[in-house]
Amino acid sequence: MQNGQYSECFAVNLDKTVTNVVKLLEQRGLTISTAESCTGGLLSELITSVSGASAVFELGLCTYSEKMKMKYLGVSEAVLSQYGVVSYETALAMVQGLKKCSGADVCVSVTGIAGPGGGTEETPVGTIYVGFDICGNQFVRLPDLRNLHDKSRDNLRRTVAGYAFGIIEEILMKAVQTNE
What we know:
The chain is 49% helix and 17% strand. It is of the alpha/beta class. Strands 2-1-3-4-5 form a five-stranded mixed sheet, sandwiched between helices. Helix 2 packs parallel to helix 7.
């Protein structure tokens, strides 16, 4: 399945996926925190919309500006000036800072351009990096959103949220199956 197709699929099943993630976290006694930029608190909102979220949700930070990324997540000015706010390096620094300040087992960060303006030729609208720290395993992903039919701000934000929770669900499901 192409990235554009699975991305739209993630957005459609978003509520079900988030509910499953919260239940998996609760079953395993794990916690989750978020650091968001272009999603503007959507990840936190989705988590807290699930009954039982208080057992797993530690912290949600909406660090929209560079200043707040530096102040609350410890993203260095050097990273921001060398790589830009929308970059692999910034998403990684955000998730590392989130892990440090929250101590949650699962941390996720999002930084990007949700549009409709703000994009450039090098960094077009829809360039959104997602950083993860799942039980100490840190990585960053850049979902391919170029093939989305609906590139509206709302759809890009929901699709990235679905993508992030889909990755978390997949990893937690594998961990549960491995422990059975």
